[in-house]
Amino acid sequence: MTGAVEDPLGPGDAGDATFDQARFRSVLGHYATGVTIVAGIDDGATPMGLSVNSFTSVSLDPPLIAFCAAKGSSTWPRIRQVGTFTVNVLAEHQEELSRVFATRGADKFARVGWWPSPASGAPLIDGALAWVDCTLEAEYEAGDHVLVVGRVNDLDVADDGRPLIFYRGGYGRFEP
Question: What integer is the mean pLDDT of 153-168?
Answer without folding.
Answer: 95
